[in-house]
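Section 5.1 Outputs to date
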Amino acid sequence: MTYARFPWRGSVGLVLGSSTGGVGQHVSSLVRGLIAAGSTALVCGPAATDEQFGFSAAGASFRAVEIPASPGPQDSGAVRALRRALSGQQLDVLHAHGLRAGFVAALARPSVPLVATLHNAVLAKGLRAQATALVERVVARNAALVLGASEDLVERAEELGGRARLSPVSAPAMAPPKRSRAAVRAEFRLAADVPLVLSVGRLHPQKRYDLLVDASARWRELTPAPVTVVAGSGPSYMDLAQRASEKRARLYLLGHRNDVPELLLGADLAVVTSDWEARQLFAQEALRAGVPLICTAVGGLPGLVGDAAVQIPPGDVDALDAAVKRLLADPALRAEYAARGPKRAATWPSEDDTVADVITAYAEVTRG
């Protein structure tokens, strides 16, 4: 796609916090699109994000700004670091990704319009929920425009006094697999008839991988018993590893992987167990690849997958267990969902559409 039909050209500052998945991939996609459209990009975020997502390699300037995962006194250091990174930069708009990055960007008081994309809902409780609500309000009211990855995020920003609209985030196109299905399955020493259940995501309590561990322990009774693998890193790694060991679950934590297309090629089922998601990238990748998907009916997922996936209630290990057993026992049903996935995916906005939508947002906030 060409962006020539969009008259807006400018210099954009992109701000993000720690990311090992969706947010970093989205910012990387925007960098590539902005450069292709004739704009310039400066990315400010943790040094590890440039190493993983290659912002500099894609043509952006990069400044290391470590943004903490939780609000606290350390925010003042992040604000000062962001001000230094922006000093002397001739920007037209500053675009923060995620609530934490949006908060730091708002406190830095940029001299140009601030756009904030919200990628996740706040699930905190108690005092932490109160503190996070204050952060949400600061971001909503200081941003010239809030872009929500799902309708509930848009509604939340508007409730807090912000100007907001929906901006669906598309998963970047996956590279073709470099290995065969047989080679992928051989990595896990799977016999031809052993099902492989796959999930990909950050190891964080929101993802509810504890449910996947508990359900996979039940699947030992099946013949043949499936193997479950989870690709991703995060703070829940040790807890999940201990839980899997205690329950003797046939579940393995793979850590961060760069071969998701190959893992999908080897998988028989894809599973998302999260308490909340907007347009989770792995769910998009699974349907595009034609892998039958079971996901929780939360956030933006029902509108994303429609009838192309089996939807279950969040936090319900019995529903997860039943859905997996049902699909594994019915090859024809798996084939039906495998066919539905790519058809549903064809109706989604493309990666180019997502970039074009964001460029339109920049034009809106800089028009005056």
